[in-house]
Amino acid sequence: MSRVRDWDGATYDRISGPMEALGLEVLARLDLTGTEVVLDAGCGSGRITEALLEQLPNGRAIGVDQSASMVDAARRRLGPGVDLRVLDLLELELEQPVDAILSTATFHWISDHDLLFRRLHAALRPGGRMAAQCGGEGNIDILRGRVATVLARERYAERFADWRPPWNYAGPTETRERLLAAGFSSAECRLTPAPRQPDHPREFLATIVLGPHVQQLPVELRERFMDDVLDTLGEPVVVDYIRLNIDAVV
Ligand SMILES: C[S@@+](CC[C@H](N)C(=O)[O-])C[C@H]1O[C@@H](n2cnc3c(N)ncnc32)[C@H](O)[C@@H]1O
Questions:
Q1: Does residue 99's CB lie within 6 angstroms of at least one atom of ligand 1?
Q2: CB distance 42 to ligand 1 below 6 Å
Q3: What is the structure's pLDDT at 5?
Q4: Which CATH superfamily is domain 9-139+168-197+240-249 in?
Q5: How many whole angstroms separate alpha carbon 71 and alpha carbon 217?
Q6: What are the helix (H) ranges across 169-244?
Q7: CA of 105 to the centre of ligand 1 (A)
Q8: Whose CA is nearest to atom 13 of ligand 1?
Q9: Which atom of ligand 1 is nearest to the CA of 22?
Q10: Nearest CA to ligand 1 atom 17
């Protein structure tokens, strides 16, 4: 089990507009004909899965996510007829290989990319394609630097003394090598800056970007922490996303 944090699927579903906008660009790269079977790897609350299903009038989607709360939210959004599974991608084994894999904003939450890519490769049919995007090298460096000044304050420092950031923000060269080693015949990987100004910065930071920090704190310190973070960041809040884009073929 590779879980590094918990997710609140209902809140994520409500405020993840910026993630949806990024994810729709990745979906477009798959250029589907409409008959494929597509795995959404790390489907979250299903916002992108819903858009994916619209492109599969004669196909099918399988949504996999480790978080039961996210899959519950996805079920509410997509209804009972959609194939959604609570599953760690590092333990992924499908009954039949799929034609394509879509994954958005997920891989950087997983520390072992070698194993992840082997699992995803095994889930694809010969000639199958994967389009993915996740946080990449340098992602939220500016934001993290500012948050570090808050974490250094006395009321937080002790609680973060042994804390290690959970993200795996990989670079394109190492990722390409890993994909080829996992068996993909071709892999294009590139970093793209994608700064975002979320509409609901407090909830967006607390639920998504700084979720691991918030979960490290006792409940009574969490709102205070977010006040301190927002004071430090000032306005507008800019999340300096740098995304790692992957297009790979088996
Ligand atoms: C930021 S959300 C992205 C959700 C959705 N793809 C989107 O773009 O809105 C990241 C998701 O990755 C899932 N995740 C992280 N590690 C995972 C793993 N090892 N196996 C399956 N899902 C995982 C989390 O549970 C979470 O739902």
A1: no
A2: yes
A3: 75
A4: Vaccinia Virus protein VP39 (3.40.50.150)
A5: 25
A6: 172-181, 201-204, 211-216, 219-233
A7: 7
A8: 42
A9: 8
A10: 66
β-strand 242-249 against 124-135: which pairing, if any?
antiparallel
| Short-list 128, 122, 137, 127, CA closest to 176 | 137
Question: Can you give the pTM of this predicted structure?
Answer: 0.95
Give the rounded percent of residues in the chain with a pLDDT score beyond 70.
99
Check: CB of residue 242 under 8 Å from CB of residue 50: no
How many angstroms is it from 154 CA to the middle of ligand 1?
32
Does ligand 1 lie within 6 Å of residue 88's CB atom? yes
Domain boundaries, the chain: 9-139+168-197+240-249
- Report the Cα 40 to chain-centroid distance in Å: 11
Q: How far is the CA of 44 from the centre of ligand 1 (A)?
A: 5
The torsion region of residue 105 among left (phi > 0), alpha (psi -120 to 50) and beta comes to: left
Calculate how far, in angstroms, residue 161's C-alpha sits from the geometric centre of ligand 1: 27
Give 230 Cα–ligand 1 centroid separation in angstroms.
25
Q: For residues 232-249, b (16+ Cβ closer than 10 Å) or e, as one string?
A: ebeeebebbbbbbbbbbb
pLDDT one-digit tens code per residue, 218-229: 999 999 999 999
The residue with tokens 């310190």 is: 221
Sequence-distant (≥ 6) Cβ neighbours of residue 25 within 8 angstroms: 133
Amino acid at 62: I
